[in-house]
Design brief:
Length: 138
Amino acid sequence: MNIAHQYVTYEIAKLLKEIGFAEKCSHYYVTDFQNFKADGLLKKTTLPEDIENDNVFYFVDRSRQHHLLVAPEIWQVVEWLRAKHAIWISCDYMDELLNFYWTITDIKTNTDELGTFNCDTPEEAYLAAITYILTKLI
């Protein structure tokens, strides 16, 4: 079995940039700039995997390259939200509905918020939860 990497969408990458996400990522999106129209397609950096963070962000950095958006994998965003904002996302499957759903936990207050119950895949549930957090909670 080959498990594919699961990256955030172009729209989520834009939201992450707005709130200051600045972690090392192997992929990026290009936004509109000057006469260039963004295609929203995921692109891979040509830099080696073991290069230092500062050098990666010289290539894909909010302050130096305004038209580039880092494209983290979903797990990176889940961990970043836990570490930086004390928010945990979990995804589960509901047999009765035959669908996945998400739960957001505020780690500081230990309160939960249930989310969308009609997701066909875990990836869809995580992306829905991340979008909700970035647009409603942070």
